[in-house]
């Protein structure tokens, strides 16, 4: 029998479509938690001397979580480098449409989209980059080596950087 993560890997677009249907039909409380997380996290970020804030978003899907982080960032900073690592091309395409629809308020954000797994991004040299904010919300389940991946992500933080990892273990969200 195939492991769930292997099944998920083979059907990423279908997974994201099904998950969006779930959101559209009643799972909106999740969105409020992300908005609160984003406002709190960015509020604590103290990078006033920086010319550019650098963000790495892992497993972003269609950008529905990211929009809260981006909105909080543009309220505080004028220049933002935002790297998105997401293995599902259809989700990246949706995220790109979202950025176009928000271009007037997100005009100081430079987006880089990478259609790949986070571990592939790290192996291809992503570990040489430094970020002020790294977030992965329910996206590290598929890592081949989650402990090593977390180690790399932590080491990619700038001195004042912040890392947010959200996962579900049993019935609890962390």
UniProtKB/TrEMBL annotation:
**Which domain of life does this protein belong to?**
Eukaryota
InterPro entries tied to this protein: SAM-dependent_MTases_sf (IPR029063)
Per its UniProt record, what Pfam families does this chain match?
Methyltransf_23 (PF13489)
Q: Which named protein is this?
A: Histamine N-methyltransferase-like
Q: What is the lineage of its organism?
A: Eukaryota, Metazoa, Hemichordata, Enteropneusta, Harrimaniidae
- Identify the gene encoding this protein: LOC102808325
């Amino acid at each position: 029998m195939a492991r769930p993560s292997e099944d998920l890997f083979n059907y990423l677009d279908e997974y994201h479509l099904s998950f969006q249907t779930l959101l559209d039909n009643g799972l909106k409380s999740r969105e409020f938690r992300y908005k609160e997380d984003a406002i709190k996290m960015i509020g604590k970020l103290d990078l006033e001397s920086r010319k550019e804030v650098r963000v790495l978003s892992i497993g972003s899907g269609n950008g529905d979580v990211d929009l809260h982080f981006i909105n909080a960032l543009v309220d505080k900073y004028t220049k933002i480098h935002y790297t998105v690592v997401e293995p599902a091309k259809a989700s990246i395409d949706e995220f790109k449409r979202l950025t176009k629809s928000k271009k007037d308020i997100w005009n100081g954000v430079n987006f880089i989209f990478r259609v790949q797994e986070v571990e592939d991004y790290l192996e291809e040299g992503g570990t040489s980059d430094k970020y002020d904010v790294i977030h992965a919300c329910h996206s590290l389940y598929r890592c081949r080596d989650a402990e090593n991946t977390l180690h790399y992500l932590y080491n990619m933080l700038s001195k004042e950087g912040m890392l947010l990892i959200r996962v579900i273990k049993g019935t609890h969200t962390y």
